């Protein structure tokens, strides 16, 4: 039995989104998998010579005259030049992939212009991605695991790639997915979970022909394919006695395995590795460093132009909560910063955006600015592990924008550090952006239909982090509902802005106060459990007791984590005076009566924000209900049904969060809610 549903929602590329490009004549100049894809996209248009066609797609080697243009600027690396003149549209990409992305960009421009009620003016635009690497990681397993399901931290059904222990025979859905990703500029995809179990370890060797089938699909949309591999492969797959990165036999095994991969998939991207992390094997067992480990794989990949993506998510997950000197937030910097300059050129060190683990609110990881001689990539989590699991509306773009715009070394933004665009006195090689995908076999791709916007936004921010979250939402709405008439489209956009613009802030307000994370049900990470992780070995404590709450991470009296930041942040976070309210309890342990910059006390803030956030859900539900007359036309019935089902669960869960947190902190502190609201 296949778990692939027969009717799949087209996400942000319904036929109407491309219609403005296929209503007249079209020509695609050149050959190659991506230009063939462009040809298929324009199949609805009438063919015409490139000199005259209304829509033309070509690559940089085409000459202006042949395209019917007087002149043509050279397309930038990875990007495209788009010329609009006299009703014609000519897209010229640096290569086929860039040309295809340029074609989708033209559809987006048309959709946005329509929503804004204007036409797209004639002119030349030159567009290239800000991040040179824009990758999606999939935590997909080949088999279904009893607790996690098939996709680890997946909230949208099974894997698009694997079924019953192998790569699917029918990859039609993967084509659809690749198309969506190409349209938002993604250029690399890792297809399996970073926790590499025994079955998935064999993708590297025994299943290469099947991996090649996936790579064929992604290639046609301008993406390279990566595999997550186990550092333990030489022993597990090669039956060697060791995985020691400095052992000659181990090095030879990786070289040979990698040569075979490239013999099968010549443009293979490389390996993603989670080593010495949450039980995965790594170099520590042999007394070696993570540079030794990463360079071992880099050496095998280098002759083929491949890349090692080495994750920095290394910490002690067997901690004792009584040990106040070990601080998980410090771990990545402690392990990796001293290794700066020791990684091979084809190693990318992938760092989670925050020092802990994708919580609703975390400061930016100091590692991102600590390794100027290393290609650092920043990892975001599109899948909503700690942000409502695609049952709650939580539009993540506003937070990502804040992270990417954060001036971590006082001067350069996180986006600049990742892109390797820094000043001559502080060169930093490029690592790019990566994110954990949120899709699955669900008919809406993402469980909550509105969670599609998060995937969309990741690609767009990797392309251009100066876009605002609202602009990105406009684009996504205009494309997704391209089939709606003008009046309906305007109403849908207004309703979705009302529901989504502040949705993450609202989610934060009923779940995670003042920078405290992990008050979730252990294992599944959904729903409140204030002490769920408090006495566990995972290092995620908030230290709430009858007197106060928070983690003292100061240099003066705490774990010293604030000292890992460059100025001005080390001083800003160290001081109670200047530490921002929203991160107060991440950096400081304070009494419940501590007065915030907002004027409220810590405990009253906990009471108020939870109650207010739940009240706001009336408006969220009301905004969706205001579209009721469009259901069956602009809004498909199944879409509406799914959104309403998720809104009901969001309310149930939000009330549970509100009541559990208010009750817990009332009991712990003995301080009543000043407003007299009921405490359960
Ligand atoms: O937050 C943790 C998740 C794990 C995940 C890990 C990681 C893939 O709970 O499920 O494992 O992060 O990022 O490696």
Automatic annotation (TrEMBL):
One GO molecular-function entry: xylan alpha-1,2-glucuronosidase activity
InterPro entries named among the record's database cross-references: A-glucoronidase_C_sf (IPR037054), GH (IPR017853), Glyco_hydro_67_C (IPR011099), Glyco_hydro_67_cat (IPR011100)
UniProt-listed GO biological process terms: xylan catabolic process
Pfam families given in the database record: Glyco_hydro_67C, Glyco_hydro_67M
Residue ranges constituting the Glycosyl hydrolase family 67 C-terminal domain according to the UniProt record: 446-677
Domain of life: Bacteria
GO cellular component, one term: extracellular region
Domain Glycosyl hydrolase family 67 catalytic: 126-445
Protein name: Alpha-glucuronidase
Native organism taxonomy: Bacteria, Bacillati, Actinomycetota, Actinomycetes, Micrococcales
């Amino acid at each position: 039995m296949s778990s692939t549903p027969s009717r799949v929602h087209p996400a942000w590329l319904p036929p109407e989104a491309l219609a403005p490009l296929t209503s007249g004549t079209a020509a695609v100049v050149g050959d190659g998998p991506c230009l063939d894809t462009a040809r298929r996209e324009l199949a609805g248009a009438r063919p015409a010579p490139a000199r005259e066609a209304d829509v033309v797609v070509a690559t940089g080697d085409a000459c202006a005259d042949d395209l019917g243009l007087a002149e043509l600027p050279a397309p930038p690396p990875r990007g495209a030049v788009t010329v609009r003149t006299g009703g014609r549209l000519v897209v010229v990409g640096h290569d086929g992939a860039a040309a295809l992305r340029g074609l989708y960009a033209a559809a987006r421009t048309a959709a946005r212009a329509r929503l804004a009620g204007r036409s797209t003016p004639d002119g030349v635009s030159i567009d290239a991605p800000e991040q040179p690497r824009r990758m999606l990681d999939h935590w997909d397993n080949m088999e279904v695991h009893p607790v996690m399901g098939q996709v680890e931290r997946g909230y949208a059904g099974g894997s698009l790639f694997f079924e019953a222990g192998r790569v699917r025979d029918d990859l039609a859905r993967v084509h659809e997915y690749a198309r969506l990703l190409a349209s938002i500029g993604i250029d690399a995809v890792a297809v399996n979970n970073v926790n590499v179990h025994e079955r998935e370890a064999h993708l590297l060797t025994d299943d290469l022909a099947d991996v090649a089938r996936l790579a064929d699909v992604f290639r046609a949309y301008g993406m390279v394919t990566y595999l997550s591999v186990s550092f333990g492969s030489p022993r597990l797959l090669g039956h060697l006695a060791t995985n020691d990165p400095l052992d000659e036999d181990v090095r030879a095994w990786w070289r040979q395995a990698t040569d075979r991969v490239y013999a099968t998939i010549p443009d293979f991207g490389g390996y993603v590795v989670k080593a010495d992390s949450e039980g995965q094997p790594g170099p520590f067992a042999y007394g070696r460093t993570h540079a030794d480990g990463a360079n071992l794989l880099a050496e095998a990949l280098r002759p083929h132009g491949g890349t090692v993506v080495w994750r920095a998510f290394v910490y002690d997950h067997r901690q004792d909560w009584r040990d106040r000197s070990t601080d998980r937030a410090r771990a990545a910097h402690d392990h990796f910063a001293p290794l700066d300059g020791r990684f091979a050129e084809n190693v990318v060190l992938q760092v989670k955006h925050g020092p802990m683990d994708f919580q609703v609110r975390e400061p930016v990881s100091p590692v991102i600015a600590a390794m100027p001689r290393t290609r650092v990539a920043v990892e975001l989590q599109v899948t909503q592990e700690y942000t409502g699991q695609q049952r709650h509306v939580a539009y993540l773009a506003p937070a990502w924008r804040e992270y990417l715009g954060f001036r971590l070394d006082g001067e350069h933004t996180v986006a600049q550090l990742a892109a390797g665009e820094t000043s001559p006195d502080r060169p930093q090689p490029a690592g790019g952006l990566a994110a954990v995908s949120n899709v699955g076999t669900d008919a809406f791709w993402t469980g909550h239909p509105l969670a599609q916007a998060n995937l969309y936004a990741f690609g767009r921010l990797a392309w251009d982090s100066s876009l605002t979250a609202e602009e990105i939402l406009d684009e996504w709405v205009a494309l997704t509902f391209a089939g709606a008439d003008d009046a309906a489209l305007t109403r849908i956009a207004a309703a979705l802005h009302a529901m989504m613009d502040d949705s993450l802030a609202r989610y934060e307000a009923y779940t995670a106060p003042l920078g405290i994370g992990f008050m979730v049900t252990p294992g599944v990470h959904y729903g409140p459990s204030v002490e769920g992780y408090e006495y566990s070995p995972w290092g995620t404590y908030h230290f709430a007791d009858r007197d106060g709450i928070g983690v003292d991470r100061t240099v003066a009296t705490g774990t010293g984590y604030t000292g890992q930041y460059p100025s001005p942040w080390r001083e800003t976070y160290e001081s109670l005076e200047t530490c921002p309210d929203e991160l107060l309890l991440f950096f400081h342990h304070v009494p419940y009566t501590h007065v915030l910059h907002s004027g409220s006390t810590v405990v009253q803030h906990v009471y108020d924000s939870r109650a207010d956030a739940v009240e706001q859900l009336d408006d969220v539900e009301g905004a969706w209900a205001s579209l009721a007359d469009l259901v069956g036309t602009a809004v498909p019935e199944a879409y509406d049904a799914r959104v309403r089902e998720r809104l009901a669960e969001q309310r149930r869960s939000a009330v549970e969060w509100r009541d559990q947190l208010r009750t817990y902190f009332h009991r712990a502190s003995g301080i009543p809610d000043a407003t007299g609201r009921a405490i359960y």
